[in-house]
Amino acid sequence: MQKNDILSIKAYAKINLAIDVIRKRPDNYHEVKMIMQSIDLFDIINLKDYDNDIKITSENKDVPLDETNLAYKAAQILKEYTNISQGVQINIDKKIPIAAGLAGGSADAAAVLIGLNKLWNLNLDLDILMKLGATLGSDVPFCLKGGTILATGRGEILTPLNNLPDLFVILVKPKFDVSTAWVYNNFARNKVKKTPNIENMIIGLKENNITKIVENSANVLESVTIEKYPEIEKIKEILNNEESLLTLMSGSGPTVFALIDNLAKATAIVEQLKSKADFNHEIFLVKTTKRGYFI
Ligand code: ATP
Fold first, then answer.
1. 119 lines ligand 1 (CB under 6 A)
2. What residues act catalytically?
């Protein structure tokens, strides 16, 4: 690459096909068991050489521009690990809603790790990037791989699964943000209504049996987030029509997704929702994807 060239990377969001919380660990993290799925809703990360510093820019005023940005932290950790003096300007074209349960920040961090490995000719292998990424956030290793993956431990121990068949995904994001830390801190097992059977879901993925996958799915964090924001239950009810294979909250919320197997049906649902006068949530129609990023 020439100096001043821009390297662009697509950073894909994720949904959770299932989340179970196993226990609270002595280090205060929660041990989880989740099935993660990449979707083709993406931020675009543009990287450009920049003296010795790290500089974040974004048109979106809600994106932090300081060292708290996970993209900044990703560049910083690579600089520290490799002792490289080069800097980088990171422009974040934000499409993934923030604090939505879609791992937008983690996706950006993963894209920066991949992009700088190339821009700075570091030749670090994926295992090293995943180890560095895990120190930034539990979802970063997943975003470096993408597809359909079982995540255990804090979410950083990954086992690739058979891919979910290609499906359309309707995402509905209410106006409020949810803090992941708050949800985990308020988790109480006795309030959970449905626990996923993740082993059966894995068998369902192997057999390409969508009924087995969706029947065994659940997100135990719904019990926390929906109690505080009953609006999420209302969105689930609206999306949970006969066309929807699965309707679930993603991550710690508040985004709700519906899986649909047919574009015409999915488009009709989206158009109908958009035409409702009292429907004031953000809505997206995307597809599942087998990638975590595209460079
Ligand atoms: P997860 O599902 O992994 O918990 P999320 O989708 O709920 O993530 P993010 O969009 O990653 O949440 O944002 C969570 C917080 O992280 C926000 O409050 C935001 O200020 C901060 N943040 C740091 N870096 C970024 C980034 N690159 N993009 C968006 N938010 C970021």
1. no
2. 14, 139
